[in-house]
Amino acid sequence: PITQQVSSHYDLLQNNLINNPLATCPANTALGMTINVDFRRGSVDSFIASGGAPSYSSDGVTFSVSRPGEAPQLSSLFYIMFGRVEVTMKAAPGAGIVSSLVLLSDTLDEIDFEWLGADDSEVQTNYFSKGQTTTYNRGQFNPAPNNQGEFITYIIDWTPQRIQWYVGGTLVRTLGYDEAEGQFPQTPMQVKFGA
C-alpha cells in the first residue's frame, strides 16, 4: 500500500497555475495498466519527489514539514484517464497542515481527498473542472475516525459516468456526471500526494 503522513493542496494548485497549458497541451504519458506501488520498499521510478525529500521506512513514505511554506509531495510520471486509485495512509497531525491525495490534470481538472491536521475525525472530498473555483460547493466532509492514528485505505474510483470516494472500504460519496452541472473532471490526471 501507498502510505503518507503529510500533503499540501496549496502547492499542487500553485505549481499548476504557474504552468497551466490551457492554450496547448503536450502529450501525456498514459499509465495504460494496473500497478501496485509499495513505498515500504523505498522509492520507485514511477513517482518523482518535489518540495522536499521524503523518507522511506517499514511504514512507507513520510513527508516532513519543518518550516512554513514547505510542501513536499510525490507526483506520478504517468497520467490516468479514468481509473481507480487506492492509498493506505495516516493523515498528518497539526493545525495548518493539510494532507491530500489529488488527481490533477494539466488543465486543472481535479478529484481529491483532503485531511485537515487539526481534525482527525473526517476527510473532505472535492472535485473541480478546469480550475473553476468561483464557488466552493463541490466539497463534502465525510467521517474518517482516527485518520491520524491508524492506517486507513482511501479509494477514488473515477469513470466517465461517476466518481466514487471510499473510506476504509465504505462508500462515502458518489458524484454522477449529470450532478456535476458541467463541472465533471474529464481530462488525463496525474496522481499526487504530499505536504
UniProtKB/TrEMBL annotation:
Pfam families: Glyco_hydro_16. GO terms for molecular function: glycosyltransferase activity; hydrolase activity, hydrolyzing O-glycosyl compounds. Residues 1-195 form the GH16 domain. Transmembrane segments: none annotated. GO terms for cellular component: fungal-type cell wall. It comes from the Eukaryota. InterPro entries: Beta-glucanase-like, ConA-like_dom_sf, Glycosyl_Hydrlase_16. One of its GO terms (biological process) is carbohydrate metabolic process. SUPFAM superfamilies: Concanavalin A-like lectins/glucanases. PANTHER family: GLYCOSIDASE CRH1-RELATED (PTHR10963:SF68), GLYCOSYL HYDROLASE-RELATED (PTHR10963). This is Podospora anserina S mat+ genomic DNA chromosome 1, supercontig 2. It comes from Podospora anserina (strain S / ATCC MYA-4624 / DSM 980 / FGSC 10383). The lineage of its organism: Eukaryota, Fungi, Dikarya, Ascomycota, Pezizomycotina.
